[in-house]
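Entry for BIS(adenosine)-5'-pentaphosphate complex. Fields follow.
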Amino acid sequence: MRLILLGPPGSGKGTQSARLAGRYGVPQIGTGDMLRAAVDAGTGLGRQAKAYIDAGELVPDELVVEIVRQRMAEPDAAAGWLLDGFPRTAEQARRLDEVLEQSAKEIDRAVLIEVPDDEIVRRLGGRRVCAACGAVFHLDWKRPAVQGVCDLCGGRLRQRSDDAEETVRERLRVYREQTAPLARHYEKLSVLVAVDGRGSVNQVFDRIDGVL
Ligand code: AP5
């Protein structure tokens, strides 16, 4: 199974792709997660990516395409994968098409998760992430037992650098300008399905699983 999850920031791509990866037995390849790991590790890639991420802008195509290409070449991705947050530009989509063509493979589905802007700002504004284990909490609907402390490992909870409201608005602008037009590309390939991303995580999962 080769899947792409498309959708604005905060639409639930990461949440749903973790579940779908388990359901379909393929690795989740999340470019945001890989880039943040590189930032935390202080690698050359991380140092280059940090300023773009903090500003809500896209990291240059050549950096992102390369990490995805390397990850897709690992043995666990031979039988399929789930791309979360990639492609995000026309150039990234073109490069992905190229890689697939070279290996005579095709995308099975591109799932577009649709969520209105006000819901996105609410979701991302309240998100807190454990600095140690990556567990995700929310100030309104998934509060930790002790404020600022992870229920799972006792790590410190922090707000993602790009979840400040102003940066979220910029991420939405960038999404509309550069990523939203990709839906048309996958529509032309007859693999696009749009899913309502409102409602509970389980409801959205069932909708996606239903169309797959
Ligand atoms: P990335 O990490 O990919 O950020 P994003 O797409 O903006 O995604 P988010 O993680 O904010 O949202 P999501 O849709 O995954 O939703 P999630 O499940 O987390 O990228 C970050 C940055 O890295 C980019 O801005 C860019 O700089 C760079 N980058 C990454 N990929 C790149 C690329 N290909 N090219 C160039 N640059 C790239 O959920 C969000 C919140 O909502 C969570 O709190 C969650 O618990 C909650 N939630 C989820 N589902 C529900 C629900 N149904 N109901 C209520 N709450 C929900």
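NOTE: The radius of gyration is 17 Å.
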